């Protein structure tokens, strides 16, 4: 079924929803709405993104009719900012689990994978007014029925419907995601949120190469700490605390 403002208002009520058949980036629209005083839980959804943004300045493709591009406005305390992207990856995992998709996990820090292929990415963005935290926008992109065959990510990306072998209603998926966002965002700062994210990570125990700003680190992922940083023991036995970056296995 097509997404529309009317259908989303019905399925997501009483939440404030702004639906766009086409947008540059839902995160940009949500950041502007946040600065205009949007309430917590307000959400921007686009059927297609023309300039969807990914982590590290990358592009995120959202072709029409085949994906979810959603940005939720949230007001966590400053002390829980590190949990925003955890929350995003966690709720997408929960969505796939609720559909009984096999082999769902989080690749540190916040890529959701099915059988080692990326089904979703998360992009949190923070809005400040000077030193005052205005709020955050949690952007989530989910491949629902994106056809990756013949593309350069054919081996590394996957769609939910492909993994499941059955059609899905995107409005129902959004309703689930946002219900879980509400549940977890009532628990900012909790060990429960940290543990729920941690228990889904497939990275700890793996041999990894971390591509960080200061260069590459090769070693074994030992653990994550309470702020979500990855602790990597390098080949000389030295422990590195990695706050952000991309990792490759091996
Ligand atoms: C990543 O690089 O893995 C993060 C991708 C995040 C994409 C989502 S789609 C909805 C929201 N709007 C954007 O422009 N980006 C995020």
What order do the helices and strands come in, and which of them pair?
Elements lengths: L4 H8 L4 E7 L2 H10 L7 E7 L17 E8 L8 H16 L5 E4 L3 E4 L2 E13 L2 E12 L16 H5 L5 H16 L5 H8 L8 E6 L2 E10 L5 E5 L4 E4 L3 E4 L1
Parallel strand pairs: 1-2
Antiparallel strand pairs: 2-3, 3-7, 4-5, 5-6, 6-7, 8-9, 8-12, 9-10, 10-11
The protein binds biotin (BTN).
Largest sheet, spatial ordering of strands: 1-2-3-7-6-5-4
Major beta sheet summary:
7 strands, mixed
Q: Gyration radius, to the nearest Å?
A: 18 Å
How confident overall, as mean pLDDT? 96
**Structural class by helix and strand composition:** alpha+beta
Helical proportion, percent range: 25-40%
Beta-strand portion reads: 25-35%
Q: What is the N-to-C order of secondary-structure elements (H for helix, E for strand)?
A: HEHEEHEEEEHHHEEEEE
Tally the helices: 6
What does this structure look like?
The chain has 250 residues and is α+β, with helices and mostly antiparallel strands. Helix content is 25%, strand content 34%. Helix 3 packs across helix 6 (191-198). The longest helix is centred in the middle third of the chain and has 16 residues, at 83-98. The protein is globular, with a radius of gyration of 18 Å. The structure holds biotin. The site of biotin has 21 residues, from helix 2, strand 3, strand 6 and strand 7. Biotin binds next to helix 2, strand 3, strand 6 and strand 7.
């Amino acid at each position: 079924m097509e997404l529309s403002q009317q259908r989303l208002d019905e399925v997501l009520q009483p939440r404030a929803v702004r639906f766009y058949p086409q947008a540059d980036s839902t995160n940009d629209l949500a950041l502007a709405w946040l600065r205009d005083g949007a309430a917590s839980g307000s959400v921007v959804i686009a059927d297609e993104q023309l300039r969807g943004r990914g982590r590290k300045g990358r592009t995120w493709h959202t072709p029409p009719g085949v994906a979810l591009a959603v940005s939720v406005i949230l007001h966590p305390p400053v002390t829980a900012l590190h949990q925003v992207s955890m929350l995003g990856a966690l709720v997408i995992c929960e969505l796939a689990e609720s559909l009984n998709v096999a082999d769902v996990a989080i690749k540190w820090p916040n890529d959701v994978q099915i059988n080692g292929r990326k089904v979703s990415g998360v992009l949190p963005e923070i809005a400040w007014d000077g030193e005052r935290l205005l709020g955050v926008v949690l952007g989530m992109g989910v491949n629902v029925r994106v056809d990756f065959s013949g593309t350069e990510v054919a081996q590394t990306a996957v769609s939910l419907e492909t993994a499941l072998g059955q059609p899905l209603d995107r409005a129902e998926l959004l309703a689930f995601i946002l219900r879980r966002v509400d549940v977890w965002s009532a628990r900012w700062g909790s060990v429960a949120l940290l543990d729920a994210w941690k228990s889904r990570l497939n990275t700890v125990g793996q041999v990894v190469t971390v591509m960080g700003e200061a260069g590459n680190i090769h070693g074994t992922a030992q653990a994550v700490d309470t702020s979500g940083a990855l602790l990597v023991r390098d080949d000389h036995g030295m422990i590195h605390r990695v706050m952000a970056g991309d990792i490759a296995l091996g």
